[in-house]
Amino acid sequence: AKSAGPNQQRTYKSTYGEFANQRSRLLLDLKAALANDQLSVVYQPQFDASKHTVTGVEVLVRWQHPQQGFISPDQFIQIAEQNGLITEITDFVMRQAIGELNDHGLLYHDVTRVSFNVSAADFIGERSRERFARNLSQLPGDWSIVQLELTETAALLNLDSVRRVLQSLRERGVQVSLDDFGTGYSSLSTLRQLPIQELKIDQSFVRDIATNMNDAKLVRTILAMAKALHMRVVAEGVETSAQASFLIHEGCHELQGYLYAKPMGIMQLATFLRNLRSS
Ligand code: C2E
Ligand code: CA
Ligand code: CA
Ligand code: CA
């Protein structure tokens, strides 16, 4: 309101000050985290809609802060993106996951697709292709096992260099998935400029799929479109069997969510896959 008194002004300023302070604190802590082994990775399996076999895993970063405990990636990825730290996080996540999966003998046998989340900044600059190449050269075999998940927003932020880097990785077999699909504003013609093999339906559409007609229609449309473009569709955030039934019935290829498996560490993943194989 116009009549906001001096008190209100002060409140605003101090709140903003605290907010900015918290962010710079978090940034400093994140730099320390990268140097001090506080980051780790977890894996969430993805399942074939019809056969209930594991088709791949998505790698997700975790931060165990020494004082504040677990901090969600939703709280620090954006700050890392805005401050040039995200490429270091991407490097860490890729190397760590490839190393762990390989050490446990899971690559190419039990796990045939490993999806990494990448950001717009991962595609900026001359070195970005070399960076991906250096990380992926840790693989004991070919690169077609790797998939990069990027959001529409990230793709559009830097379309030319994103396309250039993706195309060169594509030549080495790397797959591309469009994450959080439906939440951005990209046009189909834009998307067609990128070498995309997979669409991930955002969990905000999956949530009410069995009860909300509009969401149901929207998901049907995404599935029809993906089919026309010969893309695979993965639904994320599947929590109930009603959601799963709907998605399977409508022809969604793969499902991911708490209904099937939560993100887990490498030891747990090895056990999970072993049990699945013997059952
Ligand atoms: P995302 O890529 O959309 O990942 C899906 C998020 O949903 C993950 O949260 C996952 O743990 C969570 N999830 C999986 N199944 C379910 C479910 O059935 N129900 C619900 N409610 N949630 C589910 P997480 O791990 O906290 O990651 C949050 C976001 O942070 C990710 O969203 C991604 O955008 C970003 N992120 C995570 N790891 C990385 C990374 O290594 N690099 C980058 N650049 N971003 C990352
Ligand atoms: Ca993702
Ligand atoms: Ca997503
Ligand atoms: Ca998301």
UniProtKB/TrEMBL annotation:
Record keyword Manganese present: no
Domain called EAL: residue spans: 23-277
Keyword Nucleotidyltransferase (UniProt): no
The entry's keywords: Membrane, Transmembrane, Transmembrane helix
Record-given protein name: GGDEF-domain containing protein
Species this chain originates from: Pseudidiomarina aestuarii
Shown part of the complete sequence: 223 to 501 of 505
